Amino acid sequence: MKAGTSMHRGTPIGRTNRTARRALVTSLVFGATVATAVAGALPATAHDADHHLVPGNLLVSRTEYVAGADIITPGTTLLPAGCTTACVTATNDGSYPGVWNNEAVDPSFGVSSPIFLDQLTPSGQQVSTLSVPDPVRDNRGADSNGLVTSFPSKSELALNLSTSGRSVTFMGYVAPTNALDVSNSNTPGVTDPTNPVGTSYYRAVAQLDADGHFTFTKTNAYSGNNGRAAILNDNPGAGFYYTAGNAGNGGNPQPAGVIAGAGAQFITPAHTPEGVQVPGAPTPLGSFNITQLGDKADKVGKDTNFRGLTIFNDVVYLTKGSGGNGVNTVYFIDTTGKACPNGVGLPQPGAALPTSPLAYDPSTIQASGLTNNMCILNGFPTALKSSTSFPFGVWFANANTLYVTDEGNGTATYGGGIYTAAAAQPTAGLQKWTLVNGTWKLAYTLAAGLDLGTPYQVAGYPAGNNPATGLPWAPATDGLRNLTGTVHRDGTVTIYGITSTVSGATDTGADPNKLVSITDDLASTSAVAGEHFSTLRTAHGGEALRGVSFTPGTGTGADH
Fold first, then answer.
1. 293 vs 29, 368, 376, CA distance in Å?
2. 460: closest CA among 399, 392, 393, 512?
3. Distance between CA atoms of 23 and 3, rounded to whole angstroms?
4. What is the pLDDT of residues 177-226, one digit of tens each?
5. CA-only gyration radius of the chain, Å
6. Strands 543-550 and 160-161: what pairing?
7. Do the beta carbons of residue 515 and residue 485 sit within 8 Å?
8. Are 419 and 412 in contact (CB under 8 A)?
9. Helices and strands of the chain, counted as H and E runs
């Protein structure tokens, strides 16, 4: 089965009502399965004894803020972490959520945190929790296997099923818990001397099987920024990861290793313990440059600030929805060299998945970037620096229908008890696109039930306003990030999504958010009355949800 295809085609035991059917739905995030960081789950250690993952259940990635006030001393702790010049002193201690107000003086600010994978029924009921190994936290030695995330980094921890469905993958950092500014650190093998963060940590891909076993592969890619998603191509004769992320946190021109280690990457899985791995230079998978559209070149290496990743019909798709360069839109990798002579096109029939890294000329990379082998999907936006398009996840229901999440513009305009800019967005939420005569067209956007812009109360979260911004701590939904879905025999689809937020926090990526679901009529080209999102889970204070997918083995058994 190809990643991105629907796994359950209806309910295996013949249930017909939508509520019962949702309990058996399978989901793929951004075409392949992505992890759901579900905040508000049971305590992190409550279910660690049960590592068996049941096919057909959801898997949600979640992180918890575990640092104490004493990790930072206001007026004394120097920021950014490891700085040698232009240092500033922290304004807030490590207490949550005021700790994020340190971003006012350190734009690279973050605190690393542990990762948990919650197994849920498709109706949102907790089954078990799997703790991702952390060598320092678990007292197993710094050379043991393990991974952490950066708590406020909203784009991290997407979960994806492999092309066979036997494994789930995601990305993080080989770093200790409670470390500062990890998400903007260099990698050990790719150093940018202009990066204000003076520390270095490897990024890594984590792979999980149905029995709860982890393997980890280090990489020097994404120096200065973060790896966001990974998919394992484990088709016969294959065996490599495709990944998405961003790189660079310094000046221009960027070092060659930063440019080569940005965007889409091709990584070969390691077969040795993480602690003894010494990865080489980054190996890019794909590249796009706005000059393909006839636009003037901008900062080399920043047109590929990717976050969404999926595979459908042997084509790798990625999205860009943030950053000050490039085009916020949906892309694909063209392995034929024929799909888009002018930067925009459709995948060619019979295209194959990539089997090797992108070839490029190291002598020209700083001046002109990598070789371009990517296209914007025909019909999707081509405008530079869009203020209205913020795509994140994408999921194909079939070859002619795809769902794209839009996380919203993040504007914290507040008045009359609501975030007015968020509430007024016409395309934030879940977009449905259909292929019509060779062009993808936006059919409608689903947002009912998301209550865009309306603040909601969170358990364990402060009331009142953040003194740093004068706006309410209480978050409001601004759109959606990662997603997954399934097609039913009755012609409907059920889609799961992770919400984005807007609030008075200095870093809204640290806000407690939600896991939601909706069922849509697949054939409809206009919005169906009565369709609305339901909230399956709301994160507690000190938690954040990140990705959602189905468990390893989903769709590979006799009933799928």
1. 29, 15, 9
2. 512
3. 22
4. 999 999 999 999 999 999 999 999 999 999 999 999 999 999 999 999 99
5. 21
6. unpaired
7. no
8. yes
9. 4, 32
